[in-house]
Amino acid sequence: MSRLGDLIRLERTRQGLTHKQVARKCGVSDKYLMEVEAGTRIIADDQARRILKAMGMKEQTESDFTLDDIAATVDLQSAVPQLTKAVEAKKPVKTEKSEAKTESDPGVAGSIWLDALSGVLKHVPVYNAVMKEVGHRLLPITNGKIEGASPDKVFYFMAPDNDLRGFRVQHGDLLLVVPAQAAVDGAIMLLQTPQGRVLRKVKRYNDYQAMLQKYDDTFESELKNYNELTFVGRCVRLEAELS
User: Fold this and answer.
1) Residue 100 pLDDT more than 70?
2) Residue 42: is it exposed, middle or buried by C-beta count within 10 angstroms (0-12/13-18/19+)?
3) Angle formed by the axes of helices 76-89 and 106-117, nearest 10°
4) Please, where are the H alpha helices in the chain?
5) Which residue among 31, 57, 129, 235 is buried most deeply as judged by most CB within 10 Å?
6) Do the bridges between strand 155-158 and strand 121-127 make them parallel or antiparallel, or are there none, so unpaired?
7) Adjacent-strand bridge partners of 238
């Protein structure tokens, strides 16, 4: 089924609504809604959107997460506990002297969504050769990590040339980089050099030296002492455009 269908359950849970209440708002039967949430009935994306909008969910959140981003990227089942905790933490406390904001207040609702989504989604920056941010990619966070690293420490690096074309990395391709300060044998790594940041395939030669490899039209390698090298990170994912 469409993962936007899962979003219906997530939003209904956030608002604390019953199936019957949502069905009345959206002009569908509560049985239909229950079947959609259970995954026994297929729902079209446009129908799911209409139901979500009828419940008051915005097409785009304050943090630029669209419904498509959420549905395509988030493990919605794992997001439910985080969202439930966020809702519980933000329940207003009413006093005799003051009226707190209700959960239907757009500001409160938006912040709840952001609290929940910030735990499962991350805008990862894309940097060019001079480390200028030129875009971002949306990645899921799993157990508080992206590819085993802190979400705030990972980034994409845009290949500045064809030095690794023989290793299937071409100019303009994006490589996801996780922090690494030591050589990882056989990995493509990002290094800081006096001329700037470069991508090289690294082979451990011995306890003191590493072989830096590049492969455009011809294969080339250079033997370097570890104390001459500054490793920035290890490339763990490649995104390339099909030509």
Assistant:
1) no
2) exposed
3) 130
4) 3-15, 19-26, 30-38, 45-54, 67-73, 76-89, 106-117
5) 235
6) parallel
7) 175
CA–CA gap between residue 120 and residue 11 (Å, rounded): 15
Token couple for 242:
């099909």
Q: Give me the pLDDT at residue 118, please.
A: 61
Written as six digits, the tokens of 239 are 């995104």
10 Å Cβ neighbour count for 219? 10
Helix 19-26, helix 3-15: angle, nearest 10? 110
Amino acid identity at 156:
Y
Query: By the 8 A CB rule, do 10 and 79 touch?
Result: yes
Task: Indicate if the pLDDT at residue 79 is higher than 60.
Answer: no
pLDDT band at 128 (very low <50, low <70, confident <90, very high): very high
The predicted model gives 211-218 an average pLDDT of 94
Question: How many beta carbons lie within 10 A of that of residue 97, not counting itself?
Answer: 5
Q: List all residues 6 or more positions away from 26 whose beta carbon is below 8 Å from its beta carbon.
A: 33, 50, 51, 54, 55
Work out the burial of residue 208: count CB atoms within 10 Å of its CB; fewer than 13 is exposed, 13-18 middle, 19 or more buried: exposed
Contact criterion met (CB below 8 Å) for 18 and 9? no
Q: How many residues does the chain have?
A: 243
| Whether the Cβ atoms of residue 130 and residue 160 lie closer than 8 Å to each other | no
Looking at per-residue pLDDT, the higher value among 8 and 184 belongs to 184
